[in-house]
Task: inverse folding
C-alpha cells in the first residue's frame, strides 16, 4: 500500500511534519495534501503496472516464440501447398489430437496444482512463524521478570524471522541484500552477535532457537523455589512455542529444497512438443495463413501457466508470485515492538484491570427466599403434589445479610 493511501487514518507526530509521517490522527485532509496523495497514488499505480508488464515480459518473451512461429509457418505451408499423403492423414486425425490435448491439459493442470500446494504450504508455515515469534515476546513479558532477558527474547524473535528469510533465499543475514545492517542500526542485534551468526556452519535460525532456550532457562531460574509449578508451566509453554518455530522453518526448508521430479517436467515438455506439432498439422487446413498465430497464442498461454507454476514451486524468492517475506518480517518487527511498548505504557495490572474497575470484595448473593425463617421450607408448607413449589415460583431477591 502506498504512503498516500488512507493517510488520515495514520498517526502523525506533534508539530509540523512531512506528508505521510506517523503521529496523531488527523480528522481531515488538507487540500494540498490530498492532491499530493493523489499524485503519489497514481505514480505508485503506474509503477505497479510497469512491474507487472516487466514480469510478463520476462515470463513470455524468448527465442522459443520465434522458433514456434517459424516452425508453424513451415508446417502450414507444407500442408496447404505440398500436400503429402502422410501430412494429409495427420491433418484429418483431429479426434486423436484432441485426445492428446486432453491428456496434455490434465498433466499441465496437475503440475500447476502441485506447485500451488507448495506455495500454499509455504504461506501457512510462514503464518505460523509470524504467530509464534509474536507469542514468544508475549510469553516473555508475562513470565520472565528480568527486563534484560525480556528484551533479549524479543530481539531474538525478530532476528529469527529475518534469519528465516535469508535462509530460504540461500543467503545469510549478514549479506548485503538482507537486513543484518538494518537490525544493527536499530539496536536489535550487536556486531559481535551478527559476526557470530554469520560464522555458524549450521542454519542461522537455529542459532536463534538455541539462544532463546538459553534466555528462557536463565529467566525462569531467577524465579523463587516456591513457584516451581509456575516455572514448569511457563517453560513447557515457551518450549512448545520454540518447537513450533523449529518445525515451521524446517518445513519451509523442505519445501525449498525438494522441487518437482525432473522426470515429470521432461515428460510434460515432450508431450507438449508432440501435441503442438500434431495440432499445427491438424489446424493448418482450416486456419490457413492464421495457423501460425493460433499456435503462437496457445503456446504463449501454456508457457505462462507453466511459468507461474515454476515460480510457485519455490515460493520464497523474489518473483512476482512469491511470498512477500520482507513484509512478513517487518510485521513481526512491528508487532513485537508494540508488545514491548505496551508492557511499558500500561500502568495497571492486566489481570485486574484499572483500579477504578476492580470489583469490591463483598459481592451480593441471591436467594429464592426473602427470609429463610419465614420460608415454606421452614414451616413445612411444601405441597409437592400440587406442583406449586416456592423454589419454582418465587422471584430472585437479594439475601438478607
Result:
Amino acid at each position: 500500500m502506498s504512503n498516500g493511501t488512507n493517510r488520515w487514518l495514520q498517526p502523525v507526530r506533534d508539530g509540523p511534519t512531512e506528508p505521510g509521517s506517523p503521529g496523531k490522527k488527523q480528522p481531515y485532509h488538507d487540500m494540498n495534501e490530498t492532491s499530493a496523495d493523489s499524485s503519489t497514488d497514481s505514480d505508485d499505480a503506474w509503477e505497479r503496472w510497469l512491474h507487472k508488464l516487466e514480469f510478463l515480459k520476462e515470463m513470455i518473451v524468448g527465442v522459443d516464440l520465434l522458433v514456434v512461429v517459424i516452425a508453424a509457418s513451415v508446417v502450414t505451408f507444407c500442408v496447404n501447398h505440398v500436400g503429402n499423403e502422410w501430412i494429409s492423414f495427420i491433418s484429418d486425425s483431429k479426434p486423436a489430437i484432441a485426445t492428446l490435448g486432453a491428456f496434455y491439459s490434465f498433466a499441465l493442470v496437475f503440475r500447476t496444482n502441485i506447485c500451488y500446494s507448495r506455495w500454499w504450504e509455504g504461506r501457512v508455515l510462514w503464518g505460523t512463524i509470524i504467530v509464534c515469534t509474536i507469542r514468544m515476546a508475549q510469553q516473555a513479558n508475562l513470565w520472565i521478570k528480568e527486563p534484560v532477558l525480556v528484551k533479549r527474547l524479543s530481539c531474538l524473535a525478530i532476528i529469527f524471522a529475518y534469519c528465516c528469510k535469508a535462509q530460504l533465499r540461500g543467503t545469510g543475514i549478514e549479506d548485503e541484500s538482507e537486513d543484518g545492517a538494518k537490525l544493527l542500526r536499530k539496536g536489535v542485534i550487536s556486531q559481535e552477535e551478527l559476526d557470530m551468526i554469520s560464522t555458524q556452519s549450521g542454519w542461522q535460525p537455529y542459532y536463534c532457537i538455541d539462544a532463546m532456550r538459553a534466555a528462557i532457562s536463565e529467566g525462569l531460574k531467577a524465579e523463587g523455589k516456591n513457584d516451581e509449578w509456575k516455572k514448569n508451566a511457563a517453560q513447557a509453554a515457551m518450549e512448545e512455542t520454540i518447537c513450533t518455530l523449529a518445525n515451521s522453518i524446517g518445513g519451509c526448508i523442505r519445501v525449498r529444497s525438494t522441487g518437482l521430479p525432473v522426470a515429470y517436467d521432461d515428460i510434460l515438455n515432450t508431450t507438449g512438443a508432440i501435441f503442438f506439432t500434431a495440432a499445427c498439422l491438424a489446424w493448418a487446413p482450416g486456419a490457413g495463413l492464421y495457423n501460425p498465430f493460433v499456435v503462437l497464442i496457445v503456446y504463449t498461454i501454456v508457457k505462462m501457466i507453466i511459468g507461474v507454476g515454476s515460480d510457485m514451486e519455490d515460493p520464497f524468492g523474489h518473483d512476482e508470485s512469491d511470498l512477500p517475506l520482507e513484509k512478513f518480517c517487518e510485521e513481526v518487527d512491528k508487532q513485537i515492538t508494540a508488545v514491548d511498548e505496551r508492557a511499558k505504557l500500561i500502568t495497571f495490572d492486566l489481570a485486574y484491570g484499572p483500579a477504578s474497575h476492580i470489583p469490591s470484595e463483598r459481592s451480593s448473593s441471591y436467594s429464592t427466599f426473602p427470609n429463610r425463617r419465614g420460608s415454606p421450607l421452614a414451616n413445612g408448607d411444601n405441597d409437592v403434589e400440587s406442583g406449586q413449589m416456592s423454589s419454582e415460583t418465587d422471584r430472585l431477591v437479594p439475601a438478607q445479610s
